[in-house]
Fold this protein.
Amino acid sequence: MLSLQHISKYYQVSGLKNYVLNDLSLEVDEGEFISIMGPSGSGKSTLLNVIGMLDDPSDGYHYFAGHAVHQLKEKQRSALYKQYIGFVFQAYHLIDELTVYENIETPLIYQDFKSSERKAMVADILDKFNIVGKKDLFPAQLSGGQQQLVGIARALIAKPKMLLADEPTGNLNSKQGEEIMELFRKLNREDKVTIIQVTHSEKNAEYGTRIINLLDGKIASSKKL
Amino acid sequence: MIKNYFKIALRNLWKHKAFSIINITGLSIGITACFFIFMYVGFELSYDNMHTKADRIYRLVTDIKTPTETINTGVTAWPFAPNIKTDFPEVEAFVRVSGGSFLVKKGNVKFQEEHSVFADSTFFKVFDFKLLKGDPKTALSEIATIVFSESAAKKYFGNTDPIGQTVLLTGDAIPAKVTGIMKDIPENSQIKADMIISMVSLTQKFNKDLDKSWGNFGASSYLLLKPGANAKNLEKQFPAFLERRNGDEERKQHMSYTLFLEPMKSVYLHSKRNGQESGSINNVYIFTIVAVFILLIACINFVNLTTARSVERAKEVGIRKVVGAEKGQLASQFIGESVVLCLIAFVLTIILSVLFLPLFNQLAGKTISAGIFSNWYYVVILLATSVAIGFIAGIYPALVLSSFKPISVLKGRFASTNKGNVLRKTLVIAQFTISIFLIIGTIIVYTQMSFMQNKDLGFTKDQMLILDTNGDPASNAFKEAITSIPGVKSTALSSSVPGGGNPGAYSEIENKKGDLQIANLDLYFVDWDYVNQFKIKMVAGRAFSREFGTDTAQAMLLNESAVKLFGYSSPQQAIGRRFKQWGREGKIVGVMKDFHFRSLQEVIKPLSMRIELKNINLVSAKISSQNTSATIAAIESKWKTFIPNRPFSYYFLDEFFDRQYRAEQRFGKLFLNFAVLAIFISCLGLLGLASYSTLQRTREIGIRKVLGASVPGIVNMLSKDFIILVIISFFIASPLAYLFMHGWLKDFAYRIDISWWIFAIAGILASIIALGTISFQAIRAAMSNPVKSLRSE
């Protein structure tokens, strides 16, 4: 489903190339649940952003769902992204001025769903995540775990094929984190959502089907569970 | 999608109330001020547009060349227009209008009609003034027929039909028949009249010589050209016409006339000639610029505050992009928000306009608009302007916000870019440049006003009561009678007082070489007491005196300017020289020190004075400052005894003289008001910017305080950046203001120097205002507990 070949990402600092990703290649099949680990500065988040098309690599080839992403124009890339990818952040990143309901609805608005369809889809996911009662609250009125649930609901509302999560449990206590991980596993197993998560926690990493260790912008090890 | 945008726009505005209030207030005040100015400008530009034939109507004006000077008049002699109509087939019709003031009596009701005119019978044919009753073709064709305006007619006839009724003009003397009632002449007409008397009453009854007097100027003449006729070509044929009709006479009088045609529509704003009411195209330009400035300042606020807030909106932009928003969608969201904000401002603008329109009409000195709802398109224009501003001012912030890269704004702290700061600073400088420019302008206008009001004019005008007897034969007896009233210190008779009109006379005065030199001299008819009454100083010879019997027939006073005109190096040399003027011959007996008998906008012209009691109509009385009302009451009772036919009215000379500066005072007041507005809006913006910049630096302030910075130190640090901007603005605004106001002052023959302290005051004022605005925020930030600000990070 995803193929990265010889991907590099570097910054020029006083003439020297400072590599964040260094000639990295990665194949991801549909239905995988990958945990990316590694020390700070090893390029985990950058790799995730490149996969999510939020960041452009400096070099290399990037294929996604049969498209050569590195050849696509901004607009086509955006369309591809909208259709296939959902993003979850460590800091939840909900829009403070919108209610839970409206936050979850937002992606649908950008994908031109009709109002009645949106209503049905949001109602469905609220129900599935057990947050119907919270739908008219604003993010500031929720606990961290609840906010992350809303964040995941938002990421999944448009039924993406792939979910990218950047330390989704980093701001949560261990119990909340466990719940989120259970949810990920369920999504992966029952809904066949491909998941790539960045994490610091060994325990959380083990929810995945494959663990990749990064070091200095390169894959140091990869092991299937 | 629109609903979502709208919702988030309103929630955002509500959440950031202070920001919204600043932005909306600034915008509405700006739009309102701008709207008022454009109504004013529109009104000034609309003068005389009501005539459907306005494009074909021309005012005929004359340059009169005397041996000493050329006078650019706005009038003609009476025979010019009729003869031009006879000689030139391209002239379809002519109207002559000449103003006057008449005492009108109907039964017991009497009024002095100040806006009376004589007009030819073609008046209603050439102009589009609407006759409500009567026949427009014949209403003014017979001797002693008059047309009243609707409101004037009401004074005399109440609700009865005035047509065919008779009123008495000039007291009891002349009965005149009412043949028409016209709609009140609108305010944006240069020709104003409440009473129109048929021109034939003047030319065939009151003064039968007028139609043959080629040298008697006093009629405003309008020509209606046939469609397609070329005014320039017609103008070229006037010299030959004058030569044919009046050439010999002109040479005999040592005069030379040149005729010009001024398009009717441009007379009010563009003509520098006197005559009817006139406006100033310069003021129209100045206020248009001021309006654009104010709107610009308001828009700059908007752009500045919105981009300054981009830090807060950045996260939202990032999230929206991550969940699939495209740049265009985000840009339209932000433009939409700014349009929503402008629509709220629009509602406030309507409220402000309704509230302040009466005040503005008062400031402008005329009814610019009866109400903003009286013209539906005003509201439409306002709405369109608001939406347009929303779009235009929204574009830049929208582009900035929508182009944020999601990963950089979502990853931890996002610092606003330096580029945005430079732009914001530039815009603040632009705002303060405009504000300081307006402050300097206001100070200069007011200094000049006060200079004119306080300058020693060379005569006294305090406690001077002027009564107009309209040349009543009992004037002299009345004057003698009031002299004995205890509160009256002295009295005099004259044809003119400073600040009012006076005749100009064809004169021959012996010059230094001993020849009789021809000149057009301003002329006052006075009595023996006049010079003393007004404390006019004599620099040579003597004032008129009852001891010299010849003074009433053979004596003349000149002023210093006149003496210089005839080549004398000292006033003494002029004493005893001969003069011939308007049928009188005699000697110069005295020279007066120059006094300002006209406004300070004009240089003092050569002036002559003669005693001629049959030509006087004004009684001036210097009265004591105590018991003024009792004195005036006593004067009134004498008036009723001596001049019972006329209504009693009087004015004070100082007020009368200052009336000449009404236009300038109004200009000054308008300028002041808009300068205050400009400053206010700029400060609103500064307040907003200052609060955001301190917000952004909360953490820095906290750290500095922990490290031991003092409160004044931090206030200083936060204020410094803005004060530098104000100082830069000052250096840009000062030379511009100097150049501009120098040009404005050129219209005044006597004017102030633009001195350094004016700029100093403006600079200090702007700095203080700016500092006051900022320091409120700065002090609050500096006083806050660092533990709090650091913990929240």
The mean pLDDT of chain B is 87. Chain B touches chain A at residues 1, 4, 7-8, 11-12, 15, 315-316, 318-320, 322-326, 329, 406-407, 410-411 (CB under 8 Å).
